[in-house]
Amino acid sequence: MHAWLVSRAPTEMPLLPSAPGSPPMPLPPGPTQEPPTTERNGNEVPNGVEEGSGRYDGMVFIPPGPAEIGSREGEGRLDERPRHRAFIKGFYISKQEVTAEAYCRFLNTVGLEGKAGVARVNLAHPRCPILQSSAKFAPKQGMSDLPMVCVSWYGAADYAAWAGGRLPTSAEWEKAALLLTADLPADFLTTLPRSSGVPVRIAFPGRLGVTGMVGNVWEWCSDWYEKDYYQRASPSNPIGPDLGKEKVIRGGSWASPEASKRVANRHRAFPQGYYGTVGFRVAKD
Q: Is 29 helix (H, G, I), strand (E, B) or coil?
């Protein structure tokens, strides 16, 4: 089921949280026309996209080439425009979000404290899916396969480096989602009941076994956030601004309004924050 926006008076616009835990803001008017009727075969695999193996097992290769990034004029949010074409080098991206079980293996190897003695995870957060007993970390009962949340951007980046990778750039994330989300061109998706995230294996499915790129949990990206960045983004492998206060998050979460669950949508969150609706997946060169 797809929910398409139509133009509305400002007071009738759906509310969209500007970042996890922050006040809601109105979403700019969407298009009045109906969405395209052309449907893609959900099993169709775009040229050059393939499953990884060896050190890339559990990942999908996204071939080098251009991608249309952002929203068309009159659609989406102001910070998603202008829509622009960017060449993006080839990279791998995880099929699934990092799970609580996988993150516990990381913590049991390197410990809870990251740089400057700051905890990578907020174990006291009510939605944290893991716990600590003595010096060992383990998923809470029934939460092994849930996406790892309540992890700061720094904790996510540390895990990605430990796993031999990195966090995806915002442009890489969007290109991967464009290629791997089976329901395109429809962009607004009804995905999950708004009560919690779901195990990564059954999150909203895409191609080649990819799940959860839309609507399970927000996903940390490597970029700093700047609302006007698309107006000056590099046409080749954009990596975001040099500095900032917030990091880009993508994909929406189970708690987001339907208007957030869009491939083009980008939001932001403080990198030192611990959010019950923000997780991550890993990219590799």
A: coil
Q: Is 80 helix (H, G, I), strand (E, B) or coil?
A: helix
pLDDT of 4: 23
Q: Is the pLDDT of residue 25 over 50?
A: no
Partners of 136 in beta bridges:
133
How many angstroms separate the Cα of 168 from the Cα of each of 92, 158, 238?
9, 13, 11
Q: Which amino acid is at 124?
A: A
Distance between CA atoms of residues 142 and 161, nearest Å: 27
Of 99, 281, 121, 89, the C-alpha closest to 198 is 99
What DSSP letter does each residue of 179-209 carry, written as one string? HH-TTTT---B----BTB---GGGSSB-GGG
Q: Which of 42, 14, 19 is nearest to 252 (CA)?
A: 19
Contact 186, 2 (CB under 8 A): yes
For domain 48-53+62-285, say whether CATH 3.40.50.300 is its number: no
pLDDT tops 60 at residue 14: no
